[in-house]
Write a structure and sequence with these properties.
This is HNH domain-containing protein. By secondary structure, this protein is mainly α. The chain has one domain. The chain has 7 helices and 2 strands, in the order αβααβαααα. Strands 1-2 form a two-stranded antiparallel sheet.
Length: 112
């Protein structure tokens, strides 16, 4: 099995972006709504589209979907490394990583 794909199969105990111990949600790096679109079918195998996931806390997950369209997520930000190279995401992570477990941002306005 491809190492990139296999690293996303097991559920960790911490958010894979901010590393806080939280209840985790599954984020599909290639949005499921785009799995049948030609551009994605040509670029990724069926298994890769299904298994490319990150386990994220709700604030990180919501921030990603607020910041990018699903098309951009699937084409440009389809790996943990790509997300961590994005200033929009790293700014949010730097801001939230010291917040206590259970902390939920009150709005989507930028604070970082």
């Amino acid at each position: 099995m491809n190492q990139v794909v296999s690293q996303f199969l097991s559920k960790p105990s911490h958010c894979e972006l901010c590393e806080r111990a939280e209840t985790l949600t599954r984020h599909h790096l290639i949005p499921r709504t785009h799995h049948r679109r030609k551009i994605f079918v040509k670029r990724f195998s069926r298994q890769e589209m299904t298994n490319r996931i990150l386990w994220l806390c709700r604030p990180c997950h919501s921030h990603i979907h607020t910041s990018f369209s699903e098309r951009d997520l699937g084409l440009q930000y389809n790996s943990r490394e790509a997300l961590l190279n994005c200033q929009e995401i790293t700014g949010f992570i730097d801001w939230i990583k010291d917040k206590p477990a259970g902390f939920k941002p009150k709005s989507n306005r930028k604070r970082w």
